[in-house]
Amino acid sequence: MNTDYNGKNKFKSSNVIRSFQYAIQGITHTLMKERNMQIHVSISVIVVFVSFILKLSAIEWLFILFAIGGVFALELVNTAIERIVDLVTKEYHPLAKQAKDIAAGAAFIYSILSVIVGIIIFLPKIL
Ligand SMILES: Nc1ncnc2c1ncn2[C@@H]1O[C@H](COP(=O)(O)OP(=O)(O)OP(=O)(O)O)[C@@H](O)[C@H]1O
């Protein structure tokens, strides 16, 4: 294990800027490799564009931004869990399936919630 007696990782960054760079690397990797993330980004661009056109209120913008940010964040966590599972085993294992499916379930629930938020905000304006 790459940890000392304090549980610190020997790869741990001591530099805040470098930590941000690693986070951006993680986001970029997910954007390049995960189809779901690419779909989220495409939909988010359209949603933000429509939000500007429809001149949302500040509260409506907050809901939209939390919906978009939450979906991105959960997709990143979901991808991280997929990577860890694949690191641990390439063989079929029921716990590997549970871990991946539960993480996917979390992302799915937030996506559904975001769609509902979108319907509540946009539908009355469009009708
Ligand atoms: N090692 C494994 N053991 C058992 N089941 C697995 C294992 N790896 C993946 N699975 C299952 O196979 C299915 C497909 O998994 P996969 O890793 O391709 O992710 P996914 O659900 O297609 O997500 P994404 O499209 O985001 O990559 C899921 O139900 C997952 O739980």
Automatic annotation (TrEMBL):
<keyword id="KW-0594">Phospholipid biosynthesis</keyword>
<feature type="transmembrane region" description="Helical">
    <location>
        <begin position="62"/>
        <end position="81"/>
    </location>
</feature>
<feature type="binding site">
    <location>
        <begin position="91"/>
        <end position="93"/>
    </location>
    <ligand>
        <name>ATP</name>
    </ligand>
</feature>
<keyword id="KW-0547">Nucleotide-binding</keyword>
<feature type="binding site">
    <location>
        <position position="82"/>
    </location>
    <ligand>
        <name>ATP</name>
    </ligand>
</feature>
<keyword id="KW-0472">Membrane</keyword>
<dbReference type="InterPro" id="IPR033717">
    <property type="entry name" value="UDPK"/>
</dbReference>
<dbReference type="InterPro" id="IPR036945">
    <property type="entry name" value="DAGK_sf"/>
</dbReference>
<keyword id="KW-0479">Metal-binding</keyword>
<feature type="binding site">
    <location>
        <position position="34"/>
    </location>
    <ligand>
        <name>a divalent metal cation</name>
    </ligand>
</feature>
<dbReference type="Pfam" id="PF01219">
    <property type="entry name" value="DAGK_prokar"/>
</dbReference>
<keyword id="KW-1133">Transmembrane helix</keyword>
<feature type="binding site">
    <location>
        <begin position="100"/>
        <end position="101"/>
    </location>
    <ligand>
        <name>ATP</name>
    </ligand>
</feature>
<keyword id="KW-1208">Phospholipid metabolism</keyword>
<keyword id="KW-1003">Cell membrane</keyword>
<feature type="transmembrane region" description="Helical">
    <location>
        <begin position="102"/>
        <end position="123"/>
    </location>
</feature>
<keyword id="KW-0812">Transmembrane</keyword>
<keyword id="KW-0067">ATP-binding</keyword>
<feature type="active site" description="Proton acceptor">
    <location>
        <position position="75"/>
    </location>
</feature>
<feature type="binding site">
    <location>
        <position position="82"/>
    </location>
    <ligand>
        <name>a divalent metal cation</name>
    </ligand>
</feature>
<comment type="similarity">
    <text>Belongs to the bacterial diacylglycerol kinase family.</text>
</comment>
<dbReference type="InterPro" id="IPR000829">
    <property type="entry name" value="DAGK"/>
</dbReference>
<feature type="binding site">
    <location>
        <position position="75"/>
    </location>
    <ligand>
        <name>substrate</name>
    </ligand>
</feature>
<keyword id="KW-0444">Lipid biosynthesis</keyword>
<dbReference type="GO" id="GO:0016301">
    <property type="term" value="F:kinase activity"/>
</dbReference>
<keyword id="KW-0418">Kinase</keyword>
<protein>
    <submittedName>
        <fullName>Diacylglycerol kinase family protein</fullName>
    </submittedName>
</protein>
<feature type="binding site">
    <location>
        <position position="22"/>
    </location>
    <ligand>
        <name>ATP</name>
    </ligand>
</feature>
<feature type="transmembrane region" description="Helical">
    <location>
        <begin position="39"/>
        <end position="56"/>
    </location>
</feature>
<dbReference type="GO" id="GO:0046872">
    <property type="term" value="F:metal ion binding"/>
</dbReference>
<keyword id="KW-0460">Magnesium</keyword>
<dbReference type="GO" id="GO:0008654">
    <property type="term" value="P:phospholipid biosynthetic process"/>
</dbReference>
<dbReference type="GO" id="GO:0005524">
    <property type="term" value="F:ATP binding"/>
</dbReference>
<keyword id="KW-0443">Lipid metabolism</keyword>
<dbReference type="GO" id="GO:0005886">
    <property type="term" value="C:plasma membrane"/>
</dbReference>
<keyword id="KW-0808">Transferase</keyword>
<feature type="binding site">
    <location>
        <position position="34"/>
    </location>
    <ligand>
        <name>ATP</name>
    </ligand>
</feature>
